[in-house]
């Protein structure tokens, strides 16, 4: 009987882990869409997300590399209101201004965490 309970528990935990993974994948996809879509965040207009040196669009803001090492809270703060850490930032305060919702910023952060 104990073996059956343990197997059931393992199956339940595995199911929860898979559900979280699918939810995270959806969040990353939503974040990528916001990052690349002109009428949403349009982050790609100023940021290069693959680390290549380019001229023109994507070269105004800093190149986005190794963001998997950044704390999610820091990325969120920089998108919500970059002026708190850099008063002369040219990046808009996407959250403070209401351009992006809390959920949209979290989606962008989830996408940014996948950038190598």
TrEMBL record:
Q: Under what name is this protein listed?
A: Sulfur oxidation c-type cytochrome SoxX
**GO terms for MF:** electron transfer activity; heme binding; metal ion binding
Q: For the Cytochrome c domain, which residue ranges apply?
A: 26-116
Which Pfam families does the record associate with it?
Cytochrome_CBB3
Q: Which UniProt keywords apply?
A: Heme, Iron, Metal-binding, Signal
Is Metal-binding among the key words of this record?
A: yes
Which organism is this protein's natural source? Arcobacter arenosus
Signal peptide residue numbers: 1-23
């Amino acid at each position: 009987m104990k073996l059956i309970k343990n197997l059931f528990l393992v199956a339940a935990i595995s199911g929860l882990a898979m559900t979280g993974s699918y939810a995270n994948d959806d969040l990353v996809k939503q974040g990528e869409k916001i990052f690349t879509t002109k009428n949403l965040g349009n982050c790609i207009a100023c940021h290069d997300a693959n680390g290549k040196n380019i001229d023109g669009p994507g070269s105004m803001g800093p190149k986005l590399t190794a963001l998997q090492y950044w704390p999610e809270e820091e990325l969120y703060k920089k998108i919500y209101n970059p002026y708190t850490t850099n008063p002369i930032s040219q990046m808009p305060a996407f959250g403070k201004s209401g351009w992006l919702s809390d959920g949209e910023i979290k989606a962008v952060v989830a996408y940014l965490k996948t950038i190598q």
